[in-house]
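Dissemination and training. As part of the outreach component of the grant, students in the summer workshop were shown how a complex can be specified as a set of sequence lines and then modelled as a single object. The example used during the hands-on session is reproduced here so that future cohorts can follow it. Participants entered these lines:
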Amino acid sequence: MPVPDSPTLLTVDGLEVAFPGPPGGPPWVPVVRGVSFAVGRGEIVGLVGESGSGKTLTALAILRLVPPLGRIRAGRVLLGGEDLLALPERELRRVRGARIGLVFQEPGAALDPVYTVGFQIAEALRAHRRLSRRAARAEAADLLERVAMPDPGRRLGDYPHQLSGGQRQRVMIAIALAGAPELLIADEPTTALDVTIQAQILELLERLRAELGLSVLLITHDLAVVAETCDRALVMSAGELVEEAPMADLFARPAHPYTRALLSFLPALPPAGAGEAP
Amino acid sequence: MTPLLEASELVKEFPLRGAPWTRRRRRAGNRAVARVLDRVSLTLARGECLAVVGESGSGKTTLGRALLRLLPLTSGSIRFDGEDLLGLPAGELRRRRRRFQMVFQDPYGSLDPRRTVAETVAEPLVVHATTRGAAERSRRRAAVADLLAAVGLAAELAPRYPHELSGGQRQRVAIARALATAPDLLIADEPTSALDLSIRAQILDLLGRQKERLGLALMLIAHDLGAVERLADRVAVLYLGRLVEIGPASGLFATPLHPYTASLLSAVPTAQAPPGGRGSRRRIVLAGEPPSPADPPSGCPFHPRCPIARLRCAGEEPPLAALPGGGQGSLVACFYPGELAVHGPP
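and obtained this result:
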């Protein structure tokens, strides 16, 4: 049974994801190894790592969306006390989209080019609730307004190609919000965007957290994104969680050598006021 | 000393060829153009690294290509080592090309998949060879070995094909190829955007070392300031095809003068303290998205998104000029330079 007042929303415990190994070696090669962490209600947690560190696979495993051949070999994923890995597939459909929303990196590829964005948001709404088309469309406009889309009423009739990258990502977030989820998993939501648009999307995530009490698991390779937005960071390397720390500690006292290495790649800007004032 | 590269008042317009039934075509007829570079002037000295920073559509890639005459300009002039580059006939230009080379963003697309590493790196030497024969071929083999060593690639990789290499290794091959003719000028267009964070630092360090070793003039094109901090001596910031600020990197990073530069800087993380209220810098979130060069705003191109814009900004375009008294040696196109502070409480 879900525990509604628990401060912890999601608990991942000893998660292992493996793929079949090449012939001659061990049958399974683990790519996510013994990963355990928790996400609190209303908390924004960053999952940081480079390509191949296993961060996306960890997120997909939470929703049991590991790609074919891959297998979740061990662990538990507790959402409000319920183990998602033990649920039958049918039951899982009440979780996907409804309790956990997912936002992908490339909004151009995740949206269907032949349907208007209004249709696609309404489709997501109607998948979760009994709604008339008219009501779904009205709610789609509300959702677009919530994600700060300029001129939301008119954008409903637009096709994805008519929108900019930032606007498409807003549509993706609106679709993820359609099921009124408690947790939003955002996989590199700003990577394909320009820096000034990145800042807008991150601000949007923070605002949604404040307005809806949403928890966010933000997956990124970019420490800038984490530094801007997250309360806490998890650092992954080679399939393992190597560090977990509140944001301020991570920057001030990185414990793991890999984290220190990641930080050392950041530019060392001159301290405030070092330059000549104009 | 005269600069190696001197570009003045570069303008590049692309015709907008909408289909005949589109609104744009009907409204503007056939003369409609998008001005992608708008009177851009800059110089680059030997041994100097100039970073050109701008977002998608700012014209930074067009600028890099136009400077090397890889695409024709609408107007403007470029002098390379004192010589008018735009007036050179094609044959002369080809002979000159060994002196300026380019590294492209995508090392997956810029290498020929059917050529080995050694063949790719040797190609410029073949193209620009002045002699033929066995002696030349053995010289070339030695040169390729030296180049691979210089960019930190093991000699065993010489017979490999691009698909066998990692992204970072491919970009090293692209750099070796660009250095093969011992150029004076290297333009690197987002050389690290396609790479992982740890590999980015390695590639930037490699470019920096080659710059020092060969006394290269290096132009580094990037979409954010964080990528260029390591190397840049000077920084030029482009917005909608216009230069909005250009000046020494130290001054620009400490005290950005243009509000757009300030907002770009506020998006750069630092290792000392996380920005955004938890550190010393504030986060500046701009409203809206960059306008289209096909339909630029009146006055200052940045004013619709500018947090400190006033009435004057919509009516008049601020000229690119030095601050009264010279300031930090920067030029800035803003009526209210330095008013948007990056440092201080959020």
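Residues 195-212 of chain A form the longest helix (18 residues). Students were then asked to discuss how this feature might be tested experimentally.
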